[in-house]
Amino acid sequence: MSASKISNEFLNMKECVQKELSRYERIRKECHITERWKSETIKRLAAPFINGCFTLAVMGKMSSGKSTFINALIEKNILPTGHFQTTSVLTYIQHGPELLMKVIYCDDHEEIVTDNISKRLRELVAIPDEYNNLPINDINKLIAGEDSVEEILKKKEGIEGKTKCAIVDEKIWREYISKHTKANIAKEVYIECPLPDEFQGWRIVDTPGVGAVGGIQVETKILLATKDNAGNKKVDAVIFLHSGIDNIEDETARNFMEIISEELPEESKKRLFFVLTKAADTSFRTHKDETMKKAEALFTKPFGLSNDRLTYVDSLLYRFYKELDDKDNFDELDGLRGWPKDDFEKMQELYTPIKKLIRQRNQEMTNESINDVMKEWANFDELKKNINTFVRSEKTSTFERIKELIKQDCLGFIKSFQQQKNLLEGGKDAIERRKKEVQRNRIEYNKILNRLQIRTSTSEIWPKFGFIDERISSLPSITSIPQIRTVYLNLIEEVAKKESDIFKTIREDFEQYCKDYCPNDISLESIDFDELEKKAEDLSTEEVTDYSRPKEKLVKEGGLTSDPEYKTIYPYTKEQVDIDKKRREFAAYVITEARAAKQTYEKQLRSKAEHLHSIVKQEINAKIENVEKDLCEIDKKLSDKDREVRELDYKIKIVKDQYGYQ
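The structure assignment produced for this chain is given below.
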């Protein structure tokens, strides 16, 4: 299957949703339907398709080839590649008519770039060699927070200890800080460019690299946990990259998995894809089956993911395959425009093994046969197919829900028109009987409101959130600060899911009265973990003797027959952090913040429940008033009964013709 023919499931679903909405709106317009019915809910569910996009976040260590992978995926050589450290800047890439980049800086001013984007992006995110050993991201946060040079330097030792980076001379710190301000530190980058058909309607996010020690950047974890105003996830799927030529069972790989297990919220793990890179390398091809089997045990099985969530690719080969037209004798070419010499030579080295495989298959050495092997080894089509399958499974349930709501409304339109027709044909007596029936319905509606009052009461809802106290109480026993952070992030997701399930059930049970109910997005408040960690570190830092700086103290003067005597002393002190105490203090701070967040959340939950009850009450009252108003209108139309009946028959026919209802 060629890349150009790979189905873009998100755009397919978007087209289907748009088609359903168009038919629905056409019916409402042609039948002069002004009442809301289920239209507000339908529009809310359709919004992510119509106005949004499918967001794919890409994560990986520096050596995993993240930038090369994204360039290959979007078939544009935009992200700077090479082995260099980068700052923790989130880069968003999506379809646009022309190539441009918007940079948002820490002081919130913006820069628009249209030329040499790759070069400019490298200038923004690459860490110069002379600052490689600095904890750049921590320093940048302090600069963005407007800490002075001296305030930052006071935290130097604590930051170096926390990040486990090399101890660097204070002079280098001063030099870096003096050259950087809020106005020249990039916070977010947005790139628009023409994308291949299969990625139009998508957003690709290049996230900060995952460090073996430093873990997943806070910015990335926040991104994965964030939802939009309608409660939809901002990231739909996550790709983790790992070099396929590294030992899949080595300590680095296991550390990598430990970071994912400990630092990603549980809900995010369900959206994972694991991709081994550099798959055209001889060492990977030779041991591919064994490597994939080990990777399955390490990457997908621990999360209960299916095997289609694990695959392999070669990003460089895929780019080469897409950009090189004549492949018959590519080993003899001098170069390829825009390709570094080293990368081009790596591709030329594949000519011999490709040629050997073609001969083993008893095929001729042609452009087509070389293309087939390159596509097979690059394996990008398989990855794209797997992601698109995931898209369809994720979005189909929402699409089916939209169709079902539209069907319910259309059947309701037919029923309403038929009732109006029956009343007209029944005359005054039928209308009077209907008015008496409406009055009897008021009693039933009051019973409905009483049931809803019980379902939305604090005594009914709040006990279902008892697990919040359990999670908070467990924090002191957790053995590391990153795990404490993760437990709270998972708690936020767990609370959001429980709340969603509770209100979804209530809405479904009282659906015909909740047409105007759009739930406000509430959740446990997030916590400024970095600030709490700094406070915990301050409380856990004490002056201790610096045994690395001894000094010789003269004890006895030497004479003609004896040498002077010296005693080694340690007059200097240094600040030292008690790691275990820091963890305990941090847990205590988080517990305090979490309990305050819980109290706030309880109040917000109560308000949300009261709002739902109020909306249903208004809807019921409006329903009765509308029926009474309609009855008065029908009464007036009795004078031209035959024409009105024909008009209602026409409206019924419109709905039936559009959807084929009998």
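Interim note for the steering committee: The chain has three domains: 54-330, 428-532+580-658, 541-577. The longest strand covers residues 186-193.
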